[in-house]
Design brief:
About 5% of the residues lie in helices and about 50% in strands. It contains one helix and 19 strands.
Length: about 350
């Protein structure tokens, strides 16, 4: 971490010596998506109609020595002040990056996750547990849960098209702060720093590999287990077929009510361990087939096992979905049918989902 900070300081020093910047270019990207979502079974939430409301405003430019910068902010009119950590309820995530000959340096506000547990998904619309169903599945954590600073190695430095990214969050702040903002006055007992590392590689044609490691530090009240997690993933493409698989081990923070007890103090949603879990182990696999240039179909299965701190009967979340997507120019029509068993790691809580989505890209 000391070497990373030296690199970051050197980059900031170099920037301070540059006197001019070329005019930037503004861009707007995103999509307009309408969905019709039907949930039935033990969690019967009826039929829902909605329209996605997020888009990204970006700005790019170049310094007089050839280095480039990029700014992006996401607008989400449906967001509330509470869910955005006290922001104005309209701005969701933002980032400012500087790409140099020595790598990329970035400041990320609730953005820049490096977790790879979902990098292998080949679903043509979305993963079975990430399309409008609150399954309760514990995914790998991302550094984008906090405001963070990152350094990315330049391309071509490592063999096999390897890339490496490092991120550090100095506290639990995740608010949409303005410049000159101060940090949290008092960090709570669940940790006051987090870091995440990501490595990707493409050793042979068609094969891509992903890995990440995440940890939080600084919790100080009767800590039994500090929070850490890691994932490995791979994708392989051959002809019209593509395959993906990932495996994640997630060890949440465990705190005791006292130094001599095995009663968990943070066994709640606010405490970060509502299921009194010792570990979560999640495996995902998927396959997709391009029928032609317009039509694609896919199948994905996800399974997550929770092992509790105190011996108890445990139930795995199992989810699967078959999907089809048809693209016509800038419009994509997708249909998904899926089933999820043991929602929230609870026995017999099973849900079926049918979803229709129409997306217009811009």
């Amino acid at each position: 971490m000391k070497n990373i900070m030296k690199i970051i300081i050197a980059l900031f020093t170099s920037v301070s010596l540059i006197s001019s910047v070329s005019a930037g270019e503004l861009t707007v990207t995103g999509n307009a998506k309408a969905t019709y979502n039907i949930l039935s079974g033990d969690v019967n939430q009826g039929k829902g109609i909605g329209i996605a409301n997020e888009f990204d405003l970006g700005a790019t430019g170049e310094l007089d020595n050839g280095w480039s910068w990029n700014y992006q902010v996401q607008f989400d009119p449906g967001n509330t002040a509470a869910s955005s950590g006290g922001s104005n309820g309209q701005v969701d995530d933002s980032r400012l990056t500087l790409t140099t000959d020595y790598g990329t340096l970035g400041i990320f506000v609730s953005e820049g996750g490096l977790d790879t547990d979902n990098s292998a998904s080949q679903s043509v619309y979305g993963r079975p547990t990430d399309i409008g169903l609150a399954s309760g599945m514990k995914d790998g954590p991302g550094i984008d849960g906090f405001n963070n600073i990152q350094y990315h190695l330049p391309a071509g430095v490592l063999p096999y098209e390897m890339t490496a990214k490092l991120a550090y969050a100095s506290g639990q702040d995740n608010k949409m702060n303005s410049s000159n903002a101060k940090g949290n006055a008092v960090e709570n007992q669940y940790g006051n720093a987090a870091q995440q590392f990501q490595i990707t590689a493409a050793p042979i044609d068609g094969l891509k590999l992903f890995a990440d490691y995440y940890e939080e530090k600084g919790a100080y009240v009767h800590v039994i287990q500090q929070y850490e997690a890691g994932s490995i993933a791979a994708t392989y493409t051959t002809g019209a077929f593509s395959f993906g698989a990932s495996h994640t081990l997630n060890a949440p923070l465990i705190q005791a009510t006292s130094a001599l007890t095995n009663t968990i103090a943070n066994a709640s949603t606010a405490g970060g361990n509502p299921g009194s879990a010792r570990t979560y182990e999640t495996t995902k696999g998927s396959v997709a087939f391009n029928v032609n240039d317009a039509l694609s179909v896919s199948f994905e299965r996800e399974e997550s096992e929770r092992k509790q701190f105190v011996r108890a009967t445990e139930y795995d979340i199992e989810a699967q979905a078959v999907q089809a997507a048809y693209t016509m120019g800038g419009m994509t029509v997708a249909l998904s049918y899926g089933q999820t068993d043991n929602v929230g790691y609870a026995d017999g809580v099973d849900v079926e989902q049918t979803l229709l989505a129409v997306t217009m890209a811009f």
